[in-house]
Amino acid sequence: MSNTDVLVVGGGPAGCATAIRCAQLGLQVVLIESQLFPRTHPGETLHPGVEPLLKQLGVLEPVLAAGFLRHKGNWVQWEGSREFVPFGSDEEGAWLGFQAWRADFDAILLNQARALGVEIIQPSRATGLLMDGRRVIGVETSHSTFRAAKIIDAAGDHHWLARQLGLQINYHSERLIAYYGYVTGFAKARDDAPVIVADSCGWTWTAKVQSQLYQWTRLSFVNQKIPKDWLPDEFQGLQIYQPMRAANVSWRIVSQPAGCGYLIVGDAAMVVDPTSSHGVLKAIMSGIWVAHSIASELSSHVTEQQAIDRYCLWIHNWFQHDVKNLISLIAKLPTV
Q1: What CATH number is given to the structural domain containing 41?
Q2: Residue 283 main-chain phi, psi, to 5 deg
Q3: In a domain, 7, yes or no
Q4: Is the pTM of this model over 0.90?
């Protein structure tokens, strides 16, 4: 059995952000990840507002050097005609978002965690919890058993820790499934910026993610299953790069995303459909938040209960904000 300050379960953006910031704050960190990298994830459109967070984590330079596509905004056709919505600008020029290739983006974050002294155990799967009464004190893994002052669930939308603890998962929508896939070829209409187009049933997102490689996502609000060979109109005639996949994006939140000995970050804490455009941003921000919360608690600047209450309030407020905005957007869907 090994002891550490912080044990992170999951090596995606939420887990790596937690591990990196904890290490920067002088904490001993172990991170376990069930899969070997690179792993398949949908390409991610990142708002330029993510840059200060990447800089804080020490990964902005490698992200800029990775050659991700950049764009000034997105095309939106939600009600009425299609219009371009820029991110904004300042005296230095237009703000540019990233069309990040997730395999490369995740590897940059994991490499930074490793460089800062985080012990990375990969592949390793969490199999059970160690408890002392109501307190989480450790995790049993396929590799070893770890005791830690804090356990972080960053393992994604299966809500591993919440289910282990029997925490309630509150749903705020009907079952929503997002389908997504990739095509190769040339689609000049998507070379300048991504687009989201709404219709009476839902929305379709298309974006260029690499040279001659494009991604699409389709979400229907009427539980409409689409054929396996479905493609958006603008991608008709292109070659399918990977089989279509599906993700459960039903709006949901863990009732208690922090408690005695644990914190839950990213999609493991809450999920809303991709229209909110907050996936990776929320993951990174929640990871940074809990790192500071842990450091403050371990240095006795706040009590554990204060740290729990503040984090839970922040997560619930963000979730409610997103849900309110999404309800407003759905009400504006074009009619048949």
Answers
A1: 3.50.50.60
A2: -60, -50
A3: yes
A4: yes
